[in-house]
Amino acid sequence: MRGVEGAARAWQAGEVVARNFTAKDHNDLIAAVLAAQGGALGARQAAEAAQSTANAAGTAAAAA
């Protein structure tokens, strides 16, 4: 017995059932994409900061 966005009911043996894409599935998918996007943005910002630090170190070494 299971009910998502509707009333739960028991199924009879042999009854055909379906697993439909629900609004909850849609919301969970959007949340996962946004979380992945945020993680990618954080990684990009960290890479840019590391590149900036490396560039500054290279400039300082060349000037010395």
What structural class do helix, strand and pairing data support? mainly alpha
Give the ordered list of helices and strands: H
Helix content: 55-70%
Cα shape? rod-shaped
Work out the helix count. Answer: 1
Low-confidence stretches: none
Largest sheet data: none
Can you describe what's shown?
The chain has 64 residues and is mainly α. The chain has a domain at 22-64. The chain contains 1 helix and no strands. It has one helix at 23-63. The longest helix has 41 residues, at 23-63. The termini are far apart. The model has no long low-confidence stretch (mean pLDDT 87).
What labels describe this entry?
0% strand; 64 residues; rod-shaped; mainly alpha
Task: Summarize, please.
This protein is mostly helical and 64 residues long. The chain has one helix at 23-63.
Fold topology:
Layout: H1 23-63
